[in-house]
Every structure is written in structure tokens, then in C-alpha cells.
UniProtKB/TrEMBL annotation:
<feature type="disulfide bond">
    <location>
        <begin position="40"/>
        <end position="123"/>
    </location>
</feature>
<dbReference type="Pfam" id="PF00141">
    <property type="entry name" value="peroxidase"/>
</dbReference>
<feature type="site" description="Transition state stabilizer">
    <location>
        <position position="67"/>
    </location>
</feature>
<feature type="binding site">
    <location>
        <position position="79"/>
    </location>
    <ligand>
        <name>Ca(2+) 1</name>
    </ligand>
</feature>
<dbReference type="GO" id="GO:0005576">
    <property type="term" value="C:extracellular region"/>
</dbReference>
<dbReference type="InterPro" id="IPR000823">
    <property type="entry name" value="Peroxidase_pln"/>
</dbReference>
<dbReference type="GO" id="GO:0042744">
    <property type="term" value="P:hydrogen peroxide catabolic process"/>
</dbReference>
<protein>
    <recommendedName>
        <fullName>Peroxidase</fullName>
        <ecNumber>1.11.1.7</ecNumber>
    </recommendedName>
</protein>
<keyword id="KW-0873">Pyrrolidone carboxylic acid</keyword>
<keyword id="KW-0560">Oxidoreductase</keyword>
<dbReference type="InterPro" id="IPR019794">
    <property type="entry name" value="Peroxidases_AS"/>
</dbReference>
<comment type="function">
    <text>Removal of H(2)O(2), oxidation of toxic reductants, biosynthesis and degradation of lignin, suberization, auxin catabolism, response to environmental stresses such as wounding, pathogen attack and oxidative stress. These functions might be dependent on each isozyme/isoform in each plant tissue.</text>
</comment>
<keyword id="KW-0575">Peroxidase</keyword>
<feature type="disulfide bond">
    <location>
        <begin position="129"/>
        <end position="331"/>
    </location>
</feature>
<dbReference type="GO" id="GO:0006979">
    <property type="term" value="P:response to oxidative stress"/>
</dbReference>
<dbReference type="GO" id="GO:0046872">
    <property type="term" value="F:metal ion binding"/>
</dbReference>
<dbReference type="InterPro" id="IPR019793">
    <property type="entry name" value="Peroxidases_heam-ligand_BS"/>
</dbReference>
Length: 335
């Protein structure tokens, strides 16, 4: 009996080991710095040079690339699926209404960096578009005066990109703290990380249509302005975005230092100058206010937090096995 019992226990232990081996492991564990050291040793400098060249042509390169990375990671994971172009038989992510405002310079930055990488024989078709986007994002942050950091690499490009997959996956400008926290948590991103990543709004611009509800007829009341909005700032926004203006007119998200990556975003929130409801709520909600105030007081503390949060963002939903993805020859087209 004991022998049979021991056999059963042994079999159960073996079965348990097999089950544990089959369980999905966090794919981020397979990302690592210097992933391409023996594959394409100079990839980071190649990408940086291409991004710098693009940056010299237009500053829009910076916010466009940064926003592209975020929109990519939050839908199907960081797999460059947002770059895929629609075809007659498939409407891709980039054509979802939430992605139509993504500036073309972000896409162009990745495409040009990819071309530069593939121009090197040793590197051709060996570096994923997803990794190039991650590196380019780090580089534009640095070019705008923000921190530089080591990027974890080893992502494969996704095999799917559909308009429908975007539904409900991206934060909206009207979101309150609970909605923001819940959406980020669904991607394994903490509330603190969410507040840090929101600091990227120190760069870039927004179309008037995205915040018109705060400066005109707020809450359905004729002529009302969102009371959480700084009155002087609201008047400035009304001047730049008069009623019935072309919704494609855009304003800087940070009116103080729009071309510098800094902690001004949090200083703006302290003054009631968050452009979106989803910005200002971070200061107005007592649960998130202490973090906003601490980063407003220290640019070093914000930079450190931002780097840690960007690293965690870069691990969301990554594909690292051949069954999950591949390396696209053309970032906009599946192989």
C-alpha cells in the first residue's frame, strides 16, 4: 500500500511540475537590456541617430513618438500593432477614432529608424518594430531634455491589428481617478505609475474638441466653465478655441514649457491648469494629490518615477515566442 501511495505521490508531483511549466510566465522576464549585443551590436546608436535626424526636422517627433508608444502598449501590448496599415479586408488599430489624432511623425520616426537598422547587413530583419519604437521613445524623451534610460528589449511584432481591439482600451479625457486607476490596473500598471505616465502631457498638443466640454456649457449649463479649471487659463483656451472652431485646431498641453520634458505638468495641476478632466483630477482628488505635489516639488523624483513607470509600461503584453509574433520586414505590413 505504501509503495502504491509513494508512486501516486510521485506521479502527482511530476504532474504538478508539468502544470507549472505550462503556466504562462510574465513575458517581461524575457526582455533584457543589451538584447541585441550579439545580433545587431550598434542598434541603439543607429536608432538614436535616425531619431535625432527626424527631431531636427520637426519637434512634433517627440510627442508623436511618445504617444504612439503608449497607444501601442495599451491595446495589444507593446508589439507595434498600432503601426500596421489597414487593408481592404482588415481595418487596423490606427484607424480607430481614438487613434486618428496620432501624428504621422511618430509613425515616420519608427519607419525611418527601421530603414536605418535594416540598411546594416548584420541587422537586416533582425530587430523588431516594437523594439525600435521602444528605443525611439526613450530617445525623444532625452532629446526634449528628459531622462535617458536603458531600454529592455526582445519584443516581437504582433500578428494582429484590428480597429475593434482598441475599444475601451485607451483612457479618455473625461475620466476620473477611479476610471483611470481601473484601466491602468487592467494592464498591470499601478496608480502611482499612471500618475507618472500622465506627466508625459508636459509635451505635445490636443485638439480643441477634446476639452471643449470644460470651457463651454460645462455640465449642460449655458456658458458655464468647469470650476476646477483656472479662470485665466480657461479664458486663454477660449481665445485659442472659440465656439464652433475647426475641431482640428490644437493647443499645447503644457502652456508654460511645451517643448521641454520636465515636471511643469504637476506645477500646472497645482494652479488648476490641467487641460483634461483626467489631468486635473490627479490634483483635485485627495488620494492622488500627495504624489502630484511631491513631483511638483522635485524634478529628480519625477524623472526617477517616470523612468520606472516607462519600463513597466514597456513590459505590457509583450510577445517573445515565435507563436506570438515575428520581426516584420515592413512595420506597416504583416509578413
Amino acid at each position: 500500500m505504501m509503495a502504491n501511495h509513494d508512486v501516486k505521490v510521485t506521479l502527482l508531483l511530476h504532474l504538478l511540475v508539468v502544470i507549472l511549466c505550462l503556466l504562462p510566465r510574465p513575458s517581461s522576464a524575457q526582455l533584457r537590456q543589451n538584447y541585441y549585443a550579439n545580433i545587431c551590436p550598434n542598434v541603439e546608436s543607429i536608432v538614436r541617430n535616425a531619431v535625432t535626424q527626424k527631431f531636427r526636422q520637426t519637434f512634433v517627433t517627440v510627442p508623436a513618438t511618445l504617444r504612439l508608444f503608449f497607444h501601442d502598449c495599451f491595446v495589444n501590448g507593446c508589439d507595434a500593432s498600432v503601426i500596421v496599415a489597414s487593408t481592404a479586408s482588415n481595418k487596423a488599430e490606427k484607424d480607430h477614432p481614438d487613434n486618428l489624432s496620432l501624428a504621422g511623425d511618430g509613425f515616420d520616426t519608427v519607419i525611418k529608424a527601421k530603414a536605418a537598422v535594416d540598411a546594416v547587413d548584420q541587422c537586416r530583419f533582425k530587430v523588431s518594430c516594437a523594439d525600435i519604437l521602444a528605443m525611439a521613445t526613450r530617445d525623444v524623451i532625452s532629446l526634449a531634455g528628459g531622462p535617458s534610460y536603458a531600454v529592455e528589449l526582445g519584443r516581437l511584432d504582433g500578428l494582429s491589428s484590428t480597429e475593434a481591439s482598441v475599444n475601451g482600451r485607451l483612457p479618455q479625457p473625461t475620466f476620473k481617478l477611479n476610471q483611470l486607476t481601473s484601466l491602468f490596473a487592467s494592464n498591470g500598471i499601478s496608480q502611482t505609475d499612471m500618475i507618472a505616465l500622465s506627466g508625459a502631457h508636459t509635451l505635445g498638443f490636443s485638439h480643441c474638441s477634446r476639452f471643449a466640454n470644460r470651457i463651454y456649457d460645462y455640465g449642460g449649463r449655458n456658458g458655464a466653465v468647469d470650476p476646477s479649471l483656472n479662470r485665466t487659463y480657461a479664458t486663454q483656451l477660449q481665445g485659442m478655441c472659440p465656439r464652433n472652431v475647426d475641431p482640428n485646431v490644437a493647443v499645447n498641453m503644457d502652456p508654460i514649457t511645451p517643448r521641454i520634458f520636465d515636471n511643469q505638468y504637476y506645477l500646472n495641476l497645482q494652479q488648476g491648469m490641467g487641460l483634461f478632466t483626467s489631468d486635473q483630477v490627479l490634483r483635485d482628488d485627495k488620494r492622488s494629490r500627495p504624489i502630484v505635489d511631491s513631483w511638483a516639488a522635485s524634478s529628480d523624483a519625477f524623472n526617477s518615477a517616470f523612468v520606472a513607470s516607462m519600463t513597466r509600461l514597456g513590459r505590457v503584453g509583450v510577445k517573445t515566442s515565435p507563436s506570438q509574433g515575428n520581426i516584420r520586414r515592413d512595420c506597416a505590413v504583416f509578413n
